[in-house]
């Protein structure tokens, strides 16, 4: 008998009382669980009981710094109680609305860009069990929203905002302790590029250094800026770094054309006739190196659809990172946009009370052996 459960989260609630949020990414996390068994489907949904959500509901006000929303100092101070906290990670949200992962040990964790927003849930009832506490002392406030998780490894990136760079870390199943594989120092800019996601191959972790960089200043600013927690620094250039998963050694660090991406799609190693790896290929949804996409995901814009696409074009961007020591990598469209579309085209306006659309997600067919069998 084949059975299984599919769980997703995402922003699902965009108001607190009469106050309406402005950006898609601010929504308080809603979990959706689909349980397939015996040819039948049982479905349910539930809010994730993050501190931020609980405090907002209790006080009918935003109490933590969300993606674009910031609490009035009095709300936050009333809730947490010290001025210093306003300028530390304590005021950041734990609204775990960007992903759900099942660790190798079976625990199910919801995630967001802040480390404190790692929340363990019960996959059967969708109940919030509690915060996932990292037991190491690696620190940092943020991490990649999309770690790479398999049955035997959990890999993620921790940006270092003080000494611009990234820690590449690994966590074993059954453990809450992240161990450092290695460190990448940024080659441009005064802060690391945003790493919402990153690609890995069989032997390598690829660390993208995007010119859309974190801004510690904007992270703590009282009013949203056009690029929210980020700043666009084309002059700081763009780079891709390739780190060996086992040794932590950087085997390539190349300059690439400017790019903007949230999501990497796939990555693999290119080999020569003798089986030696000559390059790493990584595909992503690339927004034509235009950071405007962030602001275009405002709810007002998304809800303004009148038959015309309100989102800027995107493409499947393919990086080729040579491992032969050359200083440059390439970035090209992997698919013809005229034939395969421009990423997130809006062709339809669909609306149903109480219902939120989400992106498609690949689920392998039970027993599948081919990578695209699903
Ligand atoms: Fe994402």
From TrEMBL:
A Pfam family hit: RPE65
Annotated residues for binding of Fe cation: 146, 196, 263
Molecular function GO labels: carotenoid dioxygenase activity; metal ion binding
GO cellular component: chloroplast
Cofactor: Fe(2+)
One of the GO biological process terms: carotene catabolic process
InterPro entries: Carotenoid_Oase (IPR004294)
Keyword terms: Dioxygenase, Iron, Metal-binding, Oxidoreductase
Keyword rRNA-binding found: no
Cofactor note: Binds 1 Fe(2+) ion per subunit.
Family per record: Belongs to the carotenoid oxygenase family.
This protein's name: Carotenoid cleavage dioxygenase 8 chloroplastic-like
Species annotation: Trifolium medium
